[in-house]
């Protein structure tokens, strides 16, 4: 066995059977696959808030999104297998042109600073490592499926939305690594990636109201939520949380999404929600907006003075200082990293 293959086998073995089971359970085709083509739900003319019952009924009629193709399911199984080899992982990636393109763009970005361009997928897999390959395999099918909704609402900037979502996933994971909240699977990444799924549901299910939301400027994320509640009755966080619950995602993910704008209300999942709130502000501060809304980042205030940051780090401890430094370092390279990922 070559040294590269042995090294990859060692990395893959560390992923463990528990992670494999969680990923399969949370991202199986049973949860996400839609039997019907995606199409918008007809919307009535804007007429003020809808009843809770009608909002739930409309969300339940919204097409299921982000089905994982068989290649991505196979890739996840291989990455988490104790018998994984670089060549086998590379062979599966070669079958997915979108995943291949993202892999090579990322490894050849300024972020990695390589002196020579990498065109070999096996080399790219070795450079990136297990965790980033897993993140790519999760994000790619989610992005592609949701991009199919583009014609439904051309005023929703899809690339910006998904750059923001992937960035939030990366920053959420970074922040939580400095807390004592043990996350032994990909929940931290997943909740950041999906925190704005409610905006996609709004654009698909309430297109007329969504057009009105797009037309104005906002001073804060809270003001965006207020405008959504005034027109529909629920904001995008509540819509997204209910959508994920209906699609059988675990409570920690659905609740963190539901309360990412008000993390203290998320109960036992408040720290996960708090990390998402901070990550959202961090990514906005780098110049990547969160979707349709036009908010001047300067009006949002420092991310390390937010409710979420205080909830995660109530005192100025060594961990808090280390987390702030790590996030600042990540912010410096995040725009380049996201331009190669999405």
List the helices and strands and how they pair.
Layout: H1 3-26, H2 29-32, H3 52-61, H4 70-79, H5 86-94, H6 97-107, H7 121-128, H8 130-147, H9 158-176, H10 187-194, H11 197-205, H12 207-214, E1 217-218, H13 221-231, H14 236-246, H15 251-258, H16 270-285, E2 294-295, H17 307-312, H18 318-341
Parallel strand pairs: 1-2
Helix pairs in contact: 1-4, 3-14, 4-5, 4-8, 5-7, 6-7, 6-8, 9-10, 9-16, 9-18, 10-15, 11-12, 11-14, 14-15, 15-16
Can you describe this structure?
It is a single chain. Strands 1-2 form a two-stranded parallel sheet. The longest helix is centred in the N-terminal third of the chain and has 24 residues, at 3-26. It has helices at residues 3-26, 29-32, 52-61, 70-79, 86-94, 97-107, 121-128, 130-147, 158-176, 187-194, 197-205, 207-214, 221-231, 236-246, 251-258, 270-285, 307-312, 318-341; strands spanning 217-218, 294-295. It is mainly α and 342 residues long. The chain has 2 domains: 1-33 and 68-148, no CATH class; 154-342, Orthogonal Bundle (Hypothetical protein af1432). The protein is built from 18 helices and 2 strands. Helix 5 (86-94) packs across helix 7. Mean pLDDT is 76; it is low at 1-46 and 66-71.
């Amino acid at each position: 066995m070559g040294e590269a293959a042995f090294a990859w086998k060692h990395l893959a073995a560390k992923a463990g059977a528990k992670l494999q089971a969680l990923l399969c359970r949370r991202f199986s085709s049973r949860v996400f696959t839609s039997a019907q083509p995606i199409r918008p739900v007809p919307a009535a003319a804007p007429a003020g808030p809808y009843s809770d019952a009608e909002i739930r009924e409309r969300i339940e009629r919204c097409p299921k999104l982000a089905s994982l193709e068989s290649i991505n399911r196979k890739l996840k199984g291989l990455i988490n297998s104790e018998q994984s080899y670089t060549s086998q992982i590379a062979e599966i990636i070669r079958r997915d042109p979108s995943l291949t393109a993202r892999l090579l763009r990322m490894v050849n970005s300024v972020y990695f600073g390589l002196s020579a361009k990498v065109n070999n997928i096996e080399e790219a897999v070795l450079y990136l490592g297990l965790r980033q390959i897993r993140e790519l395999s999760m994000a790619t099918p989610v992005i592609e499926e949701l991009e199919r909704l583009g014609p439904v609402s051309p005023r929703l900037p899809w690339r910006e939305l998904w750059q923001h979502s992937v960035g939030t996933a990366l920053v959420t994971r970074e922040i939580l690594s400095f807390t004592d909240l043990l996350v032994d699977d990909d929940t931290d990444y997943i909740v950041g990636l999906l925190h704005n799924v409610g905006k996609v549901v709004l654009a698909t299910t309430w297109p007329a109201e969504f057009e009105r939301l797009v037309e104005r400027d906002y001073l804060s994320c809270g003001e965006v939520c207020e405008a959504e509640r005034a027109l529909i009755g629920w904001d995008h966080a509540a819509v997204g949380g209910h959508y994920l619950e209906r699609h059988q995602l675990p409570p920690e993910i659905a609740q963190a999404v539901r309360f990412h704008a008000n993390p203290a209300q998320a109960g036992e999942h408040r720290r996960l929600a708090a990390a998402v709130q901070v990550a959202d502000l961090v990514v906005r501060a780098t110049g990547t907006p969160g979707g349709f809304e036009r908010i001047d980042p300067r009006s949002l205030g420092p991310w390390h003075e937010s409710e979420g940051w205080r909830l995660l780090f109530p005192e100025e401890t060594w961990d808090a200082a280390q987390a702030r430094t790590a996030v600042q370092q990540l912010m410096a390279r995040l725009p380049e990293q996201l331009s190669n990922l999405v």
